[in-house]
Amino acid sequence: MDRVGVLLLNLGGPEQLQDVRPFLFNLFSDPEIIRLPFPWLQKPLAWFISNARVNTSQENYRQIGGGSPLRKITEAQGEALEQKLAETGQKADIYIGKRYWYPFTEEAIARIKRDRLRKLVILPLYPQFSISTSGSSFRVLEEMWEADPMLRQIEYTLIPSWYDHPLYLQAMADLIAQELDKCPNPDDIHIFFSAHGVPQSYVEEAGDPYQAEIEACTRLIMKTLSRPNAHTLAYQSRVGPVEWLKPYTEEALQELGAEGVKNLLVVPISFVSEHIETLQEIDIEYREVAEEAGITNFLRVPALNTHTLFIDALADLVTHSLKEPPVTFKSITHPKKNMKMYPQERWQWGLTTAAEVWNGRLAMLGFFGLLIELMTGHGPLHYVGLL
């Protein structure tokens, strides 16, 4: 069989405390993380945030050992996938491309060009598609393809999402069952699915399928698990004054505690690797929220990492995609050009001189309000899971 390349996409994370500041700068230099009315403000804002939040963010990483384990886990996933594909007779070169930290997507593409691959499968390590995760990486790659004739000679295909793959669902159900069976009364454990949130405007204005895929994924996992446990789905990591997908994780935990729930098993449904959002936000921050709400037994399902069934799912996705018509960048959901993104404008931009003056002032008020929030730590920034 022809040798192919598989590009694994993920967000990335600082591996050491000294990496936190430049990582934050990279993150907030992206206009799709914070979209401003004036592009020239993007870099100054990113510089301000990376300096204002570095101590708080470093402390969060210090609590989980001094850095993100995401790179090591992703590399292990890539090695396991390469071995599994080889067992099926499909030789493949595995590449890793991170959005905001090493190895960057640009580095992976440079290696792919150097290796002169003819076929490439682009596989995000996000089970559910969102314009803010898989979509963001796809748009970066799309710009590269448009600008580089050499890349356009590569036969590529995308795997936009795979939340409903049977082997993935079995892997998730297996991890949940293992944790339940450690408990004296496993049927009494309330299963709590916590997914990363996105602004509601992504769904309503851009048609982001993320919420629908998360909800469908939750139902499919519970069906595959085939246990009588009650369950809840909520969304974590919201930030700012705009409306995000509901229910919010912290509020849902408080409600369950008020209802008398004592035993809780948290399932990080939108993450396949341990990182800051599982190890710090869920294990430390949300544990405190749950205990304050009266939930006395707070458990968590580990991330998939290199679970055998999960790796089997990735291998099956790759081999299946090579047999199907290619999925191209043009077929992926894109955000609207003027879509409201965080920080969401409360006012429409006017066309008259007077309106432009007032809108400019209002936008700057919002800008400085955001800076105050960042400096004080109110509404901690966990957007895309990295602060």
Describe what you observe in this structure:
The protein is an alpha/beta fold and 387 residues long. The chain is 45% helix and 12% strand. It is built from 13 helices and 8 strands. It has helices spanning 20-28, 42-52, 54-62, 70-87, 105-114, 134-147, 166-180, 200-206, 210-225, 249-258, 276-292, 308-323, 353-376, and strands spanning 4-10, 92-98, 119-124, 155-158, 190-196, 231-236, 263-268, 297-300. It has a 4-stranded parallel sheet with strand order 2-1-3-4, sandwiched between helices. Strands 6-5-7-8 form a 4-stranded parallel sheet, with helices on both faces. The longest helix has 24 residues, at 353-376. The protein starts with a strand and ends in an 11-residue tail after the last helix. Residues 341-365 and 376-387 have low confidence and may be disordered.
Question: What's a quick, concise take on this entry?
Answer:
This protein is an alpha/beta fold.
What topology does this entry show?
Layout: E1 4-10, H1 20-28, H2 42-52, H3 54-62, H4 70-87, E2 92-98, H5 105-114, E3 119-124, H6 134-147, E4 155-158, H7 166-180, E5 190-196, H8 200-206, H9 210-225, E6 231-236, H10 249-258, E7 263-268, H11 276-292, E8 297-300, H12 308-323, H13 353-376
Parallel strand pairs: 1-2, 1-3, 3-4, 5-6, 5-7, 7-8
Tell me the structural class.
alpha/beta
| Overall pLDDT | 87
Q: What's the helix count?
A: 13
Please provide the ordered H/E string of secondary-structure elements: EHHHHEHEHEHEHHEHEHEHH
Number of strands: 8
> Which stretches of 5+ consecutive residues score pLDDT under 50?
341-365, 376-387
In this structure, how is the largest beta sheet organized?
4 strands, parallel
